[in-house]
Write a structure and sequence with these properties.
Length: 108
């Protein structure tokens, strides 16, 4: 995925594997919430942030006012990615389907 193609509020995915043979995939959905949204971010270094889907659904994006007041019992997870990590690890749903199809073929 090219970082410039990311759209705020859209779902993206990471595929991880539980085994060295890459036959047991896990899919993690996440919502893109923007770049350099943390007060600690250095302007010269672009960091892309993704939020877990549960807190995004219940509380709204971490960048919005609603997130501060609604459902404080729901914990939020943020996943920062460098531009290189976005290119290497972040996928669209179509990419995930293709990857899982390849995994399925390998496992036969």
């Amino acid at each position: 995925m090219l970082p410039q193609d990311l759209k705020i509020g859209h779902a993206y995915y990471r595929v991880t594997y539980a085994d060295p043979q890459l036959t047991i995939p896990g899919v993690m959905p996440m919502i893109y919430v923007g770049s350099n949204i943390s007060a600690d971010d250095i302007p010269e270094v672009i960091v892309h942030y993704f939020q877990d889907t549960t807190s995004h659904s219940w509380r709204g994006p971490v960048t919005g006012a609603r997130h501060q007041t609604e459902h404080p019992e729901v914990e939020t997870a943020l996943f920062p990615h460098s531009e290189a990590q976005v290119q290497r690890d972040v996928m669209t749903l179509g990419d995930v389907i293709s990857t899982l199809t390849q995994v399925h073929a390998r496992g036969r």
